[in-house]
Amino acid sequence: MVKQLKAYSLVILLFNIYSKAKAQENIIVSKGNPIIADKYTADPAAFVYGDSVYLYTGRDVAPKTKNSYEMHEWLCYSSADMITWKVHKSLLNVKDFAWDKDDAWASQVIERDGKFYWSVAV
To answer: Which keywords accompany this UniProt record (predicted)?
Structure first.
């Protein structure tokens, strides 16, 4: 009986985690150019894999008074139809580089032998 309760509790816990993750997924619908309009993005790079396209961008957060980019993170969006886009959580931040502050410039992803490599300019 105890083993059954533990297994049942684990299933409930996993279901709750999955449900929260699904609830936090953000979907946007493109209405033309720019494709991504929920945030100001710069330096997009498209990567097609399987039946989806992945769009990797820098996110510009510079105030209007600043005359250049200020990008602290890279964003990722994916779509199977180029209209409905899934917004993925920020996968990489300039804080991941001890020597950088505001320069989340252009990035690119490539696949080689089943592994994915993400190169970024900082």
So the answer is: Carbohydrate metabolism, Glycosidase, Hydrolase, Polysaccharide degradation, Signal, Xylan degradation
